[in-house]
Design a protein that fits this description.
By secondary structure, the protein is an alpha+beta fold. The protein has two domains: 3-232, Rossmann fold (3-Layer(aba) Sandwich), CATH 3.40.50.300; 238-361, Nucleic acid-binding proteins (OB fold (Dihydrolipoamide Acetyltransferase, E2P), Beta Barrel). It is built from eight helices and 20 strands. A six-stranded mixed β-sheet has the order 6-7-8-3-9-10, sandwiched between helices. Helix 2 crosses helix 3, helix 2 (93-103) packs parallel to helix 4 (137-149) and helix 3 (108-121) packs across helix 4. The radius of gyration is 25 Å and the shape is elongated. It starts with a strand and ends with a strand.
Amino acid sequence: MKDFIHIKGISKLFGDFVAVDNVDLEIARGELFSILGGSGCGKTTLLRMLAGFEVPSSGTIEIDGTDVTHQAPYDRPVNMMFQSYAIFPHMDVAKNIAYGLRKEGVAKQEIDKRVGEMLELVQLVDFRNRKPEQLSGGQRQRVALARALIKQPKVLLLDEPLAALDKKLREQTQFELMNIQDELGITFVVVTHDQEEAMTLSSRIAVMNEGRFKQVGTPKEIYEFPHNRFVADFIGTINTFEAVVTVVNEDGIEAYSDEAGETLSALGRQLIEVGQNIEVAVRPEKIFISKEKPEEAGDVCIEGVVDDLGYLGNRSLYRVRLNSGKMVQVSSQNRRRSITRFLEWEDKVWISWRPRSAVVLLD
């Protein structure tokens, strides 16, 4: 897909503080793109520069082939949905949605038509005459979304759009948002600190820290093949082992780890040399746990003791202490219904994983 939003060398300084540091980014037309990061990483500042509420200290922003770097917000083909929703409390749902069109002087007949279409899209037809205080959090979120979309922007910017919702409603609304975006084909750029939200919503994600992108890719690329320790830690949970490379081949590497007490195999996507210090990383759900030593040839297999455990219904979490004292977290699906536990505290166990389940982290 051709780049629709092109950000080149964008920086933003507030005095001596660098909020966004020389960022480059391309977003395709019709993408649902997320910028993910913790508080203070620069993600909202970058979104505000896209919206025109902040002027970049350097760099350029192009949307659909037009340089909008110094355009006013009202001249840009974008609209923004704020975290607070900013719904007018004295207006009913229909008037809130129609507000932008009325300010532009659009004919009443056209306003009524488009408001009706938006109410259907966000499933609020029966709520058109209600005031905001009569709505649930999810309904207010949909009013704000409809008001942002009714002006038919080329790009919709969403700042933590689901942060005010409870967990179950947030999960439901994620899919509603995806369906609306798919139906309209508008480019969505979402800012969020919620890893699960970004993974669910996005066609691609940019993971941001200290004003820079640490990795940009699809949810699967970022989760399965993190480029560095920050991304690996920020997206989900991961176990890491310090190791020294002993073999490099076409399939990856082998490296000896004192923490594991074993030679570990892993996929190596970067240029790696024998003797190099690395970290081998493996996700908890990639690890098998058993009381008996597995017989699978080629698997990494390490002995340990169950130090702690937790039952979460659909899965159990185990913290296994290796002979070196290293703690390894294992996530195991509870496929069988049982009132007794498969493992208990202080049980001796074997943990194992397939070589291709581990990756190399260099920084």
